[in-house]
Design brief:
By secondary structure, this protein is mostly helical. The termini are far apart. It is extended. β1 and β2 form a beta hairpin. The longest helix is centred in the last third of the chain and has 49 residues. The strands form 3 sheets. A two-stranded antiparallel sheet has the order 1-2. It is built from 7 helices and 6 strands.
Length: 254
């Protein structure tokens, strides 16, 4: 009879999934998950309560021999043993070798970034060093520019801005009239100048930050190289030990 009951297809009872609107919270929490979380929360709450009771009932004049070897940090907190084992000299030397390789890679990357920013900064020189461009067009000769009335000199930072300025000029100009005939043209010129100045300032700030980062990485690399030289089996540089005694490497007699 039981074999016949098992041969009949039964309905598969599936667990309810997380609603679509709450998928960002992960898998739907079941009752067993809530029970484990609640038990952990109550255990932590009881432990904190017992520690607070011990701290409240503690006698400040009490002495125990553990105070003789205990250490207190600068912030007043007790420094206990966390069970961390000190690494050997060879392990520390190997780790510092990996750190030196990482610093070398990052320094090379910072140098490339600084070089690229410096090359881009040359194109965006300040306004007094920018190349002048006459509204008559880049291909017009000097004689044509002189003969053309109402010539206006605009300063641009790159060829892209020059082409954009020429397109804007072609749309906004009306014959040979000046800025009085087309008041929107003056506003466009001022807006384009402000945009160029803002881009120049941002480029300069980014270049200064890149140079500063490169300097810091180079200083860290030099300091790490000095540490590795002092930790080597055969010391090649002098220094000051932890007792403040200065020493230097004995040089070979010539």
């Amino acid at each position: 009879m039981s074999s016949m009951r098992n041969a009949i297809q039964r309905r598969n009872h599936r667990e309810r999934a997380q609603p679509q609107g709450r998928e960002k919270w992960g898998i739907l929490e079941k009752h067993k998950d809530y029970a484990l979380r609640a038990a952990d929360y109550k255990a932590k709450k009881a432990r904190i309560k017992s520690l607070r009771r011990k701290a409240a009932d503690r006698n400040p004049d009490e002495f125990y021999f553990g105070m003789m070897s205990a250490k207190v940090g600068k912030d007043g907190n007790k420094m206990g043993d966390r069970g961390n084992k000190a690494l050997s000299q060879d392990a520390v030397r190997l780790l510092k070798t990996q750190d030196a390789a990482y610093l070398k890679v990052m320094t090379h990357k910072a140098k490339k970034e600084t070089m690229a920013l410096e090359q881009a900064f040359v194109l965006g020189e300040p306004r007094e060093h920018r190349r002048p461009m006459v509204c008559g067009g880049a291909g017009a000769s000097e004689r044509e520019r002189q003969q053309r009335p109402g010539g206006h000199i605009a300063f641009v930072a790159s060829a892209e801005e020059q082409s954009a300025f020429e397109g804007m000029k072609g749309k906004g100009s009306t014959g040979g009239r000046g800025e009085e005939g087309n008041p929107g043209r003056a506003e466009d010129l001022h807006a384009s100048k402000d945009d160029v100045d803002g881009a120049f300032r941002r480029r300069r700030a980014r270049l200064e930050a890149s140079r500063r980062r490169q300097t810091e990485l180079e200083a860290a690399e030099r300091a790490l190289d000095a540490q590795r030289a002092r930790m080597a089996k055969t010391r090649t540089v002098g220094g000051v030990d932890k007792w403040g005694v200065k020493w230097k490497v004995r040089e070979r007699r010539k």
